[in-house]
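=== RUN LOG ===
request id: a7f3
mode: sequence -> structure
chains: 1
length: 279
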Amino acid sequence: MNPLAVFALAFLLWLSKGLYLSPLVKSLSRWTDEIVAYWGVVSAAEVLLAVLVTLLCPAVYFVRWDFPVKAFLVLFALSVLSFLPSIDELGRFLNPETEEDRKVVEFIENSSLPKLAFLQVISSALPEELSFRYVFLGLLSLWNPFAGLVAISVFFGLSHRFSHSTWSWRKLLSATLGGLVFGLGYIYTKSLLVVMAVHWLDNLLPELYIKYERARRIIAVAVPLSLLSPLVFWEVTSGLISYLRDVFSLSSLLWGVILGFAMLGVVYAGIIALKGKGG
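=== RESULT ===
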C-alpha cells in the first residue's frame, strides 16, 4: 500500500483516538490510578497502530533493535542543547508561583521514583516514539526523508501547544528542536530503543531535579559533561552531519514545513469542531 495513503489513514486514526479510547480509560480507571489508566490505554493503542501500519506497509519496518551506546550519548547531548531555549522554565518549578505549576510540583514530589520513571515510559517514550517516529516519520521517510523529518519535528514540537496551553514559544521551540534530534536519531540509527531511551531520560531528569535536592548538584555536573559526547564520538556526529547533507534540499525543506503546518491545521480544525459540538 502507498506510504502516503497509509500515513493519511494512520494520522486520522491517531487524531481521533480520544473518541474511541475514552470508554476503555474509564473502565481501567476503576482498577488503577487515572493517569496510569489513561496513558496505559494510549500506549496500547499506539502499539496497535504501529502493528497495523506495519501490516499495511511492511517497508516501514526498517527498525534495528540493538542499542548503539555511542549514538545514544551523542543524541542525548544534542537533546540537551535543544533544551537551552527554555532552560529558564525549570526555575518556575523550583519556585512555583501559579496554581498549575504548584500542582505539577506537588505531583512530582508525592510520586515515587518508580512511578515517575514508569509514567515517562507510557506517556512519552513509548507512545510518542511509536507514533511520531516509527509511524509518521517512518512512512514519510519512504517518500522524502528530509521533508518527513522537518514535518514531524514541526508537528511534534508545536502540537504541544494544544495540550499545554501555558507553554511559552521558547518551550515549544525546544520541543521542536528535540523532535528534530529524535527524528534524526531514528532515521539515521534506525534504532527505536535509542530514541526512546533519550526521550525518556530527557523527560525524567527535570523531574529528578525537582524532586531530589541532593541530586541537583550531580545532574548539574553530569549533564554539561555529556555535551562532550559529540566530540568524543566524532564518528557518530560526522555520520549524522553527512546523512543530513545527503538528504537535504530546499524543496524538501519547503514540503516539510508545509506538511507540518498542514497537520497542525487539521488538529486545530478538529479541536474547533469538537468545541462547537460541546466536546
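=== NOTES ===
The two ends are 34 Å apart (CA to CA).
Residues 230 and 237 are 6 Å apart (CA to CA).
=== END ===
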